[in-house]
Model the fold of this input.
Amino acid sequence: MKLLRRAFRRLFPRRLDPVMDATLVRSAEDERCAAIYRATVPEGDPFVLGRFDEALRWRHVLDSFAGREGCLLDLGAGNGAVELAFVSAGRTIVGVDPIWNETARQLHRAAGLPLRRVVAAAEALPFRDGTFAHALCLETVEHLARPHEAGREMMRVVGGTILLTTPPRLRYLLAPDPHFGIRGLLLLPARLQERVAARRGFRGPHHYVDRIYWTVGQIAAMFPFSAVERIYTRSRLPRRLFWDAVVLRRMNRL
Done:
């Protein structure tokens, strides 16, 4: 399987996206915060270690179409890497997560930058309508127990766009799934996925990933009064099936 994948990639390499793969100009403040991040977060998990650098890239993507004005929402804020990347550039961002993350507090304290964090459920955001100009929802929707309710709440509090990432299901059908590393898991129905993951030791409620989506349309359907504005992808296959990021724009209600 690995040899076939390598041969395929040699013949059909992933395309570079002019925005996602642009050469980033990192400021001295970005480098300072990157060093603090590496010194603060636990070692071992490549995803966690690379989260700050990824956040800088998504900051560039958001700036390319939304500008730098207005307050931002980061839904599923986790360890504070995304908030740190935006605050280091002078942006105002509020993170939301259902549980308190002590690493985020330590990280922002070490950097001497503010942490604006609210502990709340995605389905009941404690903000007024239209509080935020734009929002980030990075690798989060697949973890939500009630994604449609969360989508309605996001469209209520966000007046502009939502930059969203989540793994495309078709990309992982025959490969190890993106969360547990179990090959072929996403070929199974959701309930069977949960049973197989539990047998491999992933039994905690925080382990189970509720849903990996097939199409961009399935994602957009969770966000009422929204339209798909952009789809970023490095794939040569149909972008609505093999996306890297999706941008949804809030539409006015009739």
User: Anything to note?
Assistant: Residues 51-66 form the longest helix (16 residues). Residues 139 and 166 are 5 Å apart (CA to CA).
